[in-house]
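Ticket reopened. Same input as before:
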Amino acid sequence: MLFNSYEFIFAFLPIVFFIYFYLLEKRLITGAKGLLVFASLFFYSWWNVAYLPIILTSMLFNYVIGNSLNENFKKVWIHKSSLLSFGIISNLLLLGYFKYTDFLLENVNFAFGSNVPLLHLALPLAISFFTFQQIAYLVDSYRGETSEYDFLNYSLFVTFFPQLIAGPIVHHKEMMPQFASKWNLVKNYKNIALGLFIFSIGLFKKVVIADTFAIWANSGFDHSVTLNLIEAWATSLSYTFQLYFDFSGYTDMAIGAALLFNIKLPINFNSPYKASDIQDFWRRWHITLSRFLKDYIYIPLGGNRKSSFRTYTNLLATFILGGIWHGAGWTFVFWGFLHGMALVIHRFWKKLGFTMPKILAWFITFNFINIAWIFFRAREWNDATKILSSMFNLNDPILKYFTLEKVDFQSSINLDTFEMLVFAFILISLKNSNILANSGKLSNKKMLYASILFFISILHFSTFSEFLYFNF
Amino acid sequence: MHKQKLLIFIYSTIFLFFITISTQIIVDPYGIFKITHIDGINDKTYLNKSKGRIENSLHLKIYDYETIIMGTSRAQVGIDISNINFENTNVYNASLSGTYFQELSKVLSSILDQQKELQHLIYGIDFYTFVYTNGEYERFDESLFNSKNYVLPTLIKKLLSWGSVTDMIKSIYLNRTHSKQRYWTSGQIHTEMIKRNHKKLFNKTVDSYIQTYSFYKESPYILKMFEKTMKAYAKKGVDISLFISPIHAHQLVLIESSGLLDDYYTWMKNITSIIHKINNEYHSNIKLFNFSGFNSITTEIIPSNAQTQMKYYNESSHYKMITGDLILDKIYNNSGVIDFGIVLTPENVDKHLLLIEKDRKKYYNDFPNEIDEIKKQYIKYKESRK
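Engineering reply: fixed in the latest deploy. New output:
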């Protein structure tokens, strides 16, 4: 079920909300939590019920291993580090089987000239997210940083529908206490109003802005004809904005929907395109993934505690793994490598004590991110090189034109694209949804604006589109 | 205090939905509801969606009609629902533009299921629609012609969409400015008030139909589908009047240039034979008229200047309502122009085709320059596509 669908907004969400608080009013706390788990699994199964056993098995397995690793649990007959390794490897094998088998086979076939048939497995929805979330839980259980949770609370932590499909990647430390808190079991009008406010902004970002850019981005990337210089830039910028408004819109909706149930999800985006260096960007973009990569990959690898060379290697390795996490393909690996290299260069630059004007720093950072997204979006190397070569083709005859009206566009890019790009640049320079929701009081005027955004978004529902991060 | 903010959100959203739906129903930019008429606001229906499929399917789901006109954009533009022959009957022009028989057959089946008072089907058939298309040109799924779609969700999608809101504003603007753009009434497109440069339009039509005819291939499957559809109507006792559209002689020249003249004649013979078979089987009286060929209407002279307006044609594919009136006169009263509209039977079809061939040769002799121009245009187009 998509957040941007009639069935979610007008049926699923209100029904679950009212039954949940009705059960809580009747002091049926376990029943209410059970309802949330059931509703979340129903929400998950809406796409394909065949994936339900996978998430259920994964949940049960990790709960048992996690509890066995917990230091309060003494009756473990094998060494804890072996148990942790077993847990992590099992999770990675599950993820690897569905996500990376074909990628591996393709490369084996290429390297050895063999012809092993591909499996063409469908990727179970959200597997990358719930696997990472549970690996973190296992590691923390091993470190003795988890408490003994009951299976219902654990299930809620993994399946809670607002964050289940595409994050934010939540940490048990920030979720479990919220599920256990008695203060959260009472209907809270402030949270409901705030939740609707953030949800409306997210919905608008997705269905009005991201889906509009999607038309131009898809048309440019999927177009067989070579693009001219202007089209190529419009295509790459369209994808850059589509991805941000799509994913941050999804996160806003997730945060908003969770707030209706008094659950505060961590913020995932903090105006990333305002970043003035690449390190700053990763503090603002997909924050919960960056947190995971830092805590569970970069730091265990040694972080910056060893030599400079080792720090650079760790950074590069972390981001290459981050790239692979997003998708099984060399373009994703290269995208991770580009970001890793950028972070290494940035660190080196800072070490040398160099500085540059802020506007120039922003310009370089934004353009680097924009160019790197091309590899992230491209299905094949050729798609990426096609766009890049057109973007930097200074011999393009188009340069002699002075007005857009004279340009013969091969893709669906038109004057509206450029108006929308200007609008997007203005939007990213303004306060983000998180700041809007948390700065000052939630005024009547803000609620009125939110209702207008919500209404306009509903009018854009005629064609549903999935979120980009559902593919990862 | 926060409850108040919540209520502001809820009430303002409900208000926005209410105001949008009610103004959509009142302004009625697609002519679905016809609840009220406000001068300068909704005098005419200028807009439609999915080339009229959603509107047509809604109309045919909600209202009952005794006479249905069916066909392609030719019948949609040319058959006038206010024709005197329809004076005492409730008529709807359900023709679709940009269509092929695969879609039309589904629509015809849907109409037969839904229209309980249907007595008469007038169907303008076109040679090029009898081709197998893989369904790629259909917009069937969006509409209520698809039995899986329901009225309320379809209406909600129609009313609560950004496109409908902008269309509503556009429709008010067009009505206030008394636009000369084409408009719709009961499925029919009115284009008569538009002044045209016919010469230019004829040339343009040649280009688009070279493409259309280039993928024509006789399809026994489509002919079977046609037979099945007509049988279903005959079985239900619906009167059927079929007519082969009066395409301008230039279209026949193009068909000949595309190497499809024999296919055209074969198609005509096949249709005649199917109708004869159905009439025998169901004791029905389906009449098949042919208005195409090189008769006094279809050979109308194309003005060389941009100002002179043609009497019978917009361009070689679409005929004007006056031509449509002649078709209806022939169907209803067997009156009108003598050489325009011949009832085809297995007995006279060969003779009739020989006559067309004779007329064609005469036309080629009388208008060598025009024929030459079409053939050159055909060759040029084909070479440009190599």
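The two ends of chain B are 72 Å apart (CA to CA). Chain B has 13 helices and eight strands. Please confirm and we'll close it.
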